[in-house]
Amino acid sequence: MNTISNLQNRIVRLLRCRDQQLKMTDVPRTQNSGSNQSQANLSDMLVVSELGVRSQNKTILKEINFKVKKGTTLAIVGPNGGGKTTLFRTLLNLIPYTGMIRWNDEVRMGYVPQSHVSTDFPISVEEFLRFKRRTDLEACIRSVGLEKEILRQSLGSLSGGELQRLLIAWAIVDHPNVLLFDEPTSGVDIGAEEPIYDMVNSLKKEVGITILLITHNMHVVIHYADYVLALNKQVLFFGNSKNLTHSQLLSIIYGNEFALSEEEYYKE
């Protein structure tokens, strides 16, 4: 029993630490390293201006400018090492930066990490959710497309898709109006990816959640995002995703030669 208790205490500390990082007392509505602040439009959930990050005398991000309107989905794409995760950490005020980050005064944030939550803990889905919320667990589970019977299952028995839905349920249990997704289908079987994005898209339409999404999946960008931000230490493209084709987006991120080889692959 002591072993189980110690494991439960470890997961509670881990999850509470993650939530503590995302409390908006730690993420000021206006974060500004300079003296000039532009007035944010009321329809904007987030405005980023001239954002820069350096570490060990190396430029990680420079001159990043974009905005996110309420109730829209922004897909963040780019090569590995291009600064996508650094951007998320900067938006959460976890690392120093230059420039300006302005969140809407009404922001309430949830965060869905990659599926790296240990499932070795001997606890049920219900016990996991009760670490954060005591009531309405069945409604919470149904909102992400899971049946109430799953509450009695252990974390270790869940499939990759079920675990990711559970993490989304965890993130939305406090009714956020902004969700940050870090490659939400990483580690999920290919057949389970589409239903997860469909579910997230439905949540956005039903309750007007604003979504910031890191992904490598170009299909997701074209079909689920309203806007796309392509990064490789600086902004390669920011605009309406519906104005881009799959090959155009690949060309922006990786260059024309890669995009053409990808097109040939899909033709075969």
How does this structure look, described?
- The protein is an alpha/beta fold and 268 residues long.
- The protein has one domain: Rossmann fold (3-Layer(aba) Sandwich), CATH 3.40.50.
- Helices cover 37% and strands 24% of the residues.
- It has nine helices and ten strands.
- It has a six-stranded mixed β-sheet with strand order 6-7-8-4-9-10, sandwiched between helices. The chain has a four-stranded antiparallel β-sheet with strand order 1-5-2-3, with helices on one face.
- β2 and β3 form a beta hairpin.
- The longest helix is centred in the first third of the chain and has 21 residues, at 2-22.
- It is globular, with a radius of gyration of 19 Å.
- The termini are far apart.
